[in-house]
Amino acid sequence: MCSDAKRKRGDLTTTQAPFIEEARAGAQLFIDQPYELYSEKNQRTWRKLYHQILPRWERYAHHRFLEGVENVALDPDQIPRLEDINSFLAPLSGFSARAVSGYVPAYLFFDCLRQRAFPTTITIRDEHLLDYLPEPDIFHDAAGHVPMHTDPLFADALVRFGEVARSAALYAQERAEDVTVYRRLENVIKGMARFFWFTVEFGLMRDGSSTKAYGSGILSSFSELEYAIENERAQRYPFQLEWVINQYFEINTFQPLYFVISSFEELFSAIEELEQWIQAGKLDNVAPGEPEIQEADLRSFLDAELSEDSP
User: Fold this and answer.
1) Which of 42, 140, 225, 310 has the fewest Cβ atoms nearer than 10 Å?
2) In the chain, what's the furthest Cα-to-Cα distance?
3) Domain total of the chain
């Protein structure tokens, strides 16, 4: 089938989208959102996801997230246009959603955060896989992440995390001649990824007298949102940096362990401490386990442009 014919066949279902296949084949990482390609099935999936999870947001989500849902004016019935999201985000936090064709190597992902941009998947999960998807989709990114991006304190924490990634790249490049640099860098990235996972993706936070979800992985999963807050099998512990960077995580099932942080101010302080630990070599040897660090992730740090005037 020719390229034009593929584009006319509207569908942006995850793993089934010709537009994404073409972009990847052409090595296009950052792309436009071809809104006309969303099928009625795609729109129906968004509606099902949104209306199903809304009551659980109201019960289990941190109040800053709920404020963000209102501020960004997500449409319950239609997949959002990223340009509309960005028009709401700009005056609130300066953040933007930046469409990508798929996996973004670690440094490039974190450096987008430093520049107040969030790599955003444009495909949406299949309507028969509403509650679980082993990779991001637009519901995870736009409904799970974006509302928190309206909050200036949280947005600043993401930027600070991006700056930590830049510091880690500099740390690695200064040791590029060391024969152990790959192993040490792998551990640093693993520790950073775990930190991101247990905060931005699957973090819990005190909200008044309650514990609520602020992590997007929880907030975009109907079942895990209730499980993380209420199920007695879920372990919840106060955030501890040393534990977090050494704790492997689960990708294909509910998390057995969650970390509860007290505030966005504590999150920001923990990110600054993470940078200090990287510079002191405390992440050079973290515990084994998930996540697996790919060659592309390592190269993204070692090949990063780190001149003083780089954006």
Assistant:
1) 310
2) 58
3) 1
The candidate with the shortest Cα–Cα distance to 214, out of 198, 194, 200, 193, is 200
What does the pLDDT look like over 27-71, one tens digit per residue?
999 999 999 999 999 999 999 999 999 999 999 999 999 999 999
How far is it, in rounded angstroms, from Cα 62 to Cα 148? 10
Indicate whether 189 belongs to any domain.
yes
The answer to the question of residue 307 being in a domain is no
Write the DSSP symbol of residue 171: H
What's the mean pLDDT when you consider all of the chain? Answer: 93
- Cis bond leading into 291, ω under 30°? yes
Q: What is the pTM of this model?
A: 0.94
Give mean pLDDT, residues 206-214. Answer: 97
The dihedral sign for the CA sequence 262, 291, 65, 204: negative
Q: How far apart are CA 179 and CA 161, in angstroms?
A: 27
Long-range (24+ apart) CB contacts under 8 A made by 31-37 are 31/99, 31/100, 31/101, 31/122, 32/99, 33/81, 33/82, 33/83, 33/99, 33/122, 34/7, 34/122, 35/79, 35/81, 36/10, 37/7, 37/10, 37/11, 37/12
Predicted confidence band of residue 231 (pLDDT cuts 50, 70, 90): very high
Q: In the structure, what pLDDT confidence band is assigned to residue 242 with cuts at 50, 70 and 90?
A: very high
5-10: long-range contacts, CB 8 A cutoff, minimum separation 24: 7/34, 7/37, 10/36, 10/37, 10/38, 10/39, 10/42
Residue 195, domain extent: 9-302
Tell me whether residue 138 is in a domain: yes
- What sign has the CA pseudo-torsion 234, 238, 241, 243? negative
Give the separation between CA 53 and CA 50, rounded to whole angstroms. 5
> What does the DSSP 8-state code read for residue 36?
G
CATH of the domain at 134: 1.10.800.10
